[in-house]
Amino acid sequence: MINDWVDKENRMRIPLIAGNWKMNTTIGEAKQLVSAMLPGLDGIKNVDKVLCPPFVSLMAVKELIQRTSVQLGAQDLYFEEKGAYTGEISPLMLADLCEFVIIGHSERRQYFHETGETVNKKIRAALKVGLKPILCIGERLEENEAGKTAQVVTDQLQSALSGIDNLNSLVIAYEPVWAIGTGRAATGQQSNETAGLIRHNVAQLYNRKIADDMRILYGGSVTAENIAEFVAQPEIDGALVGGASLKASQFVSIVQQTAEIRGRLLK
Ligand code: PEP
Questions:
Q1: Which of 16, 180, 247, 251 maximizes ligand 1 atoms within 8 Å of its Cβ, making it the mutation to test the pocket?
Q2: Is the CB of 53 under 6 A from ligand 1?
Q3: Which one of 14, 51, 187, 196 has the lowest number of neighbouring Cβ atoms within 10 Å?
Q4: Tens of pLDDT, residues 40-96
Q5: Helix, strand, or coil here: 137?
Q6: Given 139, 175, 229, 235, which residue is catalytic?
């Protein structure tokens, strides 16, 4: 049992820190990065640690993290199981390799024209083969400035989960688009408010227990310097980390601080 302080009766959610490496690292670099992280990462308890390297490095990373407490995630999938979809990766191919899959990342929505409908199909496809989706939702800068954050995340959540009864262990990452890769993170308070709204929406769509058990992460320019502000918030259960997950010491520190802060909050 990796997470030994979690009191299921109190529905304490296990924090999760996922590193999204995006389109970075060759296979050799991926191996080096994992090898640099593992000594620090493996021993940290009470946090789920997930690495999401590019598809071509999944196998190499899987080999390195075998028999450790670190888990593996993919950055995307296609919703069909197999067939004439040149260049795509199917849920069945990933099911053997990893536990998690990021779905609906804003970069996929922005550069690859993913819609609420395709995100919904991908979530269904992931759940069907037992993968745990990390569903990304979040507003763009102009939407934020126009006061539309609540509406945008509510709409994205509804369309992503439309018609899905069993969420398995789906995780939601609230990622304001204006904070991703910009160095301009949201504040703890902003992200806590929106995470609270997302949890409220999950309760409306499903029920209170599912909402209480749902892990909601913050993502957007998280670093070792600001992680404490986020994981100290009651509605935030960890982070989806891009840039800082490519630096071993930063990522280990982010996970370490999360374990310490969440542990302290429990006392
Ligand atoms: C991300 O890739 O989801 C992300 C939040 O990136 P960054 O941490 O670099 O802003």
A1: 180
A2: no
A3: 187
A4: 999 999 999 999 999 999 999 999 999 999 999 999 999 999 999 999 999 999 999
A5: strand
A6: 175
150-202 residue pLDDT tens: 999 999 999 999 999 999 899 999 999 999 999 999 999 999 999 999 999 99
Other C-beta atoms closer than 10 Å to the C-beta of 261 total 18
Q: Is 80 a catalytic residue?
A: no
Which letter does DSSP use for residue 171 in this model? E
Residue with tokens 């021993």: 43
* Ligand 1 contact via 240 beta carbon (within 6 Å): yes
Question: Residue 231 in 3-state DSSP?
Answer: helix
Q: Counting atoms of ligand 1 from 1, which one is nearest the CA of 223?
A: 8
H helical segments located in the chain = 27-41, 58-65, 91-95, 106-111, 116-128, 141-145, 149-161, 188-205, 208-213, 227-231, 248-266
pLDDT at 9: 43
State yes or no: pLDDT of 126 exceeds 90: yes
Q: Could you give the dihedral angle defined by the CA atoms of residues 84, 21, 99 and 219, in that order, rounded to the nearest 10 degrees? A: -110
